[in-house]
Design a protein that fits this description.
heterodimer, A: about 110 residues, mainly beta, five-stranded antiparallel β-sheet, about 55% strand, B: about 120 residues, seven-stranded mixed β-sheet, about 0% helix
Chain lengths: ~110, ~120
């Protein structure tokens, strides 16, 4: 079945450093790749997404890259701040078909002041 | 973005009772809603896809007779956990596909269920 692998499971960085989280998906028909930030006990918040017709997308300090051939995509956060500390989830979907998201296992990011 | 309301936000119940969770899209019509379950420090696991006016599609391993889903209107889907047991204690969260608005998924606020 469809599967999304996410690494690392935990990541600790110093404030101002960059953080990179990587995901690999199994379904070659996936065409939509969102990233969510979730704080404890709260709903996931969409922070950035990318579709399969694009290789890279950037929004201020956040960027996502996609390699369709290798079936992996990554989240890059630059100039990290303590408020970036949260759990981050990647996901993959066949958008336009079912819209069903398959989530990665999550990465707990800690930004130390 | 789209507004998705989920109620209740938390519920405590006795083992053997049933609990109903509501998910509403407040500012658009949602033909498809998704129900997820999240155990502590784990990822979101898709339970079922809820389609307006038809039977829900359940993921492998999810008991359809235990987790009843009703999507009777374009703005409301409900998940009923029947005969709840302590192992059903989890964070349940719905999401709504916002077609025609932004082609994105929006999540409800989630329901923390604790079964004693």
């Amino acid at each position: 079945g469809e599967n999304v692998e996410q690494h690392p499971s935990t990541l600790s960085v110093q404030e101002g450093d960059s953080a990179v989280i990587k995901c690999t998906y199994s379904d070659s028909a996936s065409n939509y790749f969102p990233w969510y930030k979730q704080e404890l006990g709260k709903r996931p918040q969409l922070i950035i997404d990318i579709r399969s017709n694009v290789g890279e997308k950037k929004d201020q300090r956040i960027a996502v890259t996609l390699n369709k051939t290798a079936k992996h995509f990554s989240l890059h956060i630059t100039e990290t701040q303590p408020e970036d500390s949260a759990v981050y989830f990647c996901a993959a979907s066949r958008w336009g078909n079912t819209g069903k998201l398959i989530f990665g296992q999550g990465t707990t990011l800690q930004v130390k002041p | 973005g789209a507004v998705v309301s989920q109620h209740p936000s938390w519920v405590i119940c006795k083992s053997g009772t049933s609990v109903k969770i509501e998910c509403r899209s407040l500012d658009f019509q949602a033909t498809t809603m998704f129900w997820y379950r999240q155990f502590p420090k784990q990822s979101l696991m898709l339970m079922a896809t809820s389609n307006e006016g038809s039977k829900a599609t359940y993921e492998q391993g999810v008991e359809k007779d235990k987790f009843l889903i009703n999507h009777a209107s374009l703005t409301l889907s409900t998940l009923t956990v029947t005969s709840a047991h302590p192992e059903d204690s989890s964070f349940y969260i719905c999401s709504v596909m916002a077609r025609g608005i932004s082609e994105k998924l929006f999540f409800g606020s989630g329901t923390q269920l604790s079964v004693l």
